[in-house]
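hey can u check if this looks right to u? its 218 residues, i copy pasted from the old doc so theres a chance i mangled smth
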Amino acid sequence: MNASKRREIFARLREANPQPTTELEYSTPFQLLVAVILSAQATDKSVNLATKKLFPVADTPEKILQLGETGLSTFIQRIGLYRTKTRNILATCQLLIEQHNSEVPRSRTALENLPGVGRKTANVVLNTAFGEPTIAVDTHIFRVANRTGLAPGKNVMEVERKLLKVVPDEFRQDAHHWLILHGRYICKARKPLCQQCLITDLCEFKEKNLEQQATTAH
């Protein structure tokens, strides 16, 4: 895919959604960190349902630690892998208090040293809480980057490196959100909604799902 096509893709995504953001609900960097840890292999919707009840009760590392394992797990037990996530969040709270003055660190290395925080989670926090132009590659972004030809790669790291290289500077801050939303609602895994897609003419996917257009044309 050439540079002018890539630029046009992001120009259209920006025009349709000038200020994209995460669908996770949060009001502090700490709340975002907890929500992103919870969101691994879970939907944002299920995470928001849990944090709506959790955050009014406990929204700081100290308060969540006070809940303990049993207390915290009652709030998040409907989320997949909740036992592991409970332990990770409690251990992360402990480290934030001991090493970071109860604040979420703004460094990738420090973030990735927190239990339950991998590269993707660190990227989301750096981008969404601290405004850094990182691109967190999840399953949606991996699919969109490969399927469209925007930044094909065999693994998450390869796609991330390519996106950071090829996304024009002016779009880099929001690229993560545009691509994730596009993958979630339009460029879906099983049946992409190509007939509703803003960038279908720019996309290099050979097996486009244009059935609806074909039937309306007859």
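Residues 82-100 form the longest helix (19 residues).
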